[in-house]
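pls ignore typos typing on phone
calcium ion + seq
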Amino acid sequence: MSGIGRATNPACSQEDRGGLPTLLRLANLIAVSLLLLGAPARAQPAASVASPGNVLAVAVTLSPEGKPSYSVSRHGVVVIAPSRLGFLLTDAAKLDRFLSLAGQWTRSFDDTWEQPWGERRFVRNRYNELRVRLTERAHARRSVDVVFRVYDDGVGFRYEFPDQPSLRQVNIAEELTEFAVADPATAWWIPAGEWNRYEYLYETTPLAEVAQVHTPLTMRTDAGLHIAVHEAALIDYAGMWLRRVEGQRLRAVLAPSSQGAKVSRTAPFHTPWRTIQIADSAGGLAMSDLILNLNEPNRLGDVSWVEPFKYVGVWWGMHLDRQSWGSGPNHGATNANVRRMIDFAAEHGFRGVLVEGWNQGWDGDWYNEGAVFSFTRPHPEFDIEALAAYARSKGVRLIGHHETSGHVANYESQLQPALDLYERLGIDSVKTGYVADGGGIQALGADGSLRFEWHDGQLMSRHHLMVVEEAARRRITINPHEPIKDTGLRRTYPNWVSREGARGTEYDAWGSPPNPPEHVPELVFTRMLSGPMDFTPGILSLEGRGQPLQSTIARQLALYVVIYSPIQMAADLPENYEAAMAPFQFIKDVPTDWEDSLVLNGEVGDFVTFARKDRNSEDWYLGSVTDEEARTLTVELDFLNPRRTYTAQIYRDGAAADWEVNPRDFVIERRQVASGDSLTLRLAPGGGQAIRFVAGRRR
Ligand code: NOJ
Ligand code: CA
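k done
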């Protein structure tokens, strides 16, 4: 607790070092009094803290019975009504009542840190912190701290269990944290605890109609306030789902474990941060750095070896069912095919070549029996040594693939030699995969028996970090599919570059239904709030497996700007790019690492426009997508450097474009533009627009 001023008298304590200015305290008191209007009649205010700009305030209250709650207000108006805190334990009385305030501390923090790669280079981390210590008045006199970090654009809080004789081994049956949204709201959500993990289409319903959902859960109140609940720094803990208790009151449900307790930890330890982002606009949610800021700084030291890149691969052919992962006449991962793919990558400037189906195991029932996979024995048609060397001779790297089918026990038993092999061959990025139904992860228990777990349970939070750390030791980056959700751990482990964790482009091949036009403007304001996604866009053929994509050509290009990931695939077949060289140019040009990112406009599920500045040049890029509605959006180009002129290379929908009837109507045009100009974007139904602003001479 170094650097935190300790209050001697908790009842009237205020910070004594690095604390809040008096004015702020006053404003805060007013906010708290307002909050109390909505609190249970006899609850006592215990502690409070306001954000640095005095936008948000958090108040902690204790009921006469000693039940703790917190609430959040914005500009004095309650956003999160009093919501309970606490735990159910498997082997001790629950920890949610008979508590008193044993101490409170506040401090302020303001720092700007640099991302090694990301949506923006510099991130400001500015918050006021309140720590409250809650101690039981009787019984075992157990204690738990709750730490709130209050930003102008959101709140994070976590529980910290101090080392104490009466609660050393903590076996959590359930977390009782609530989020009671005060005003009527609409919610965008996917179900939690279902077989298809995170790969569902988003539902849009009144919040009062959700059941059990994943986070980020995005909401918009009737008054237009945008709220998203998620978590940050999910380490050695179960992922948090949300279940509606009554009205608009949501409660944490931890992802299950086969072992009784959903989480078992030894004190001292802390939970992940529970996060509540709050903004006037949908764009405000997408621009927030709250999740990253709540993670610990880079733990890997020099990470200059983590390079953002673009890649192609032996992949879409399998999803189209023209090639196979396993042996046979259509096997994709053959020496000849892979050499051709390497040549294509080298010719067009792609760093990576992903090859799936390269190893032994795909000939079995791999979906159901993950133990079939070897991660060191290549398929006889794939000469890994020769292909890795050939790739390197052309300035290209193979990308490794470890499909585990969720058989974590099998994977962990081979992890070291598997990563050693890649390290030796210079294969410095690996896509992992956990294709198994929810609850179908197979892992070894302490007693050596097989146990079945969830993709986001405590065991998997440990597994993923173990893989990431082992990979980091070998300077390898990791990109899991069917992952655990993102909670911003890329800040601490910058080699955890991307992940899937939502419906990506593979659903356009075989999904029933394929991703509808509203999917991307939903993703941007839900799943993407958690971090980068390996969406694998760029299907310029617009053809799935016997079904068309619900997209125009321009939209496929816009996705590279709209969906952030430091690694981006050009997912279509090489021959489809060779037949569409003009739009392909944008995919070749677009970077994957940004100096800055701005949301110019957007509404959840309707449309969104991003502008992003290249980290390695003066160029800017714009991407805009709409749902099934045609839209005309005017954007001001005031983000451009006023001292330069720019050539805008515009890739847009043609006047008659429409994803359903005329998806290939597409125009490329050039215009001279400058800061101060505005552009009108005309997006077709299911369409989009992509622009590269090439910086010209100084003005
Ligand atoms: C699902 C992944 O999302 C996809 O990209 C991959 O091709 C298959 N699993 C096979 O590993
Ligand atoms: Ca998948």
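Residues 315, 356, 403, 433, 435, 481, 500, 506 surround 1-deoxynojirimycin (ligand 1) (CB under 6 Å). Confidence is low (pLDDT under 50) at residues 1-41. more later
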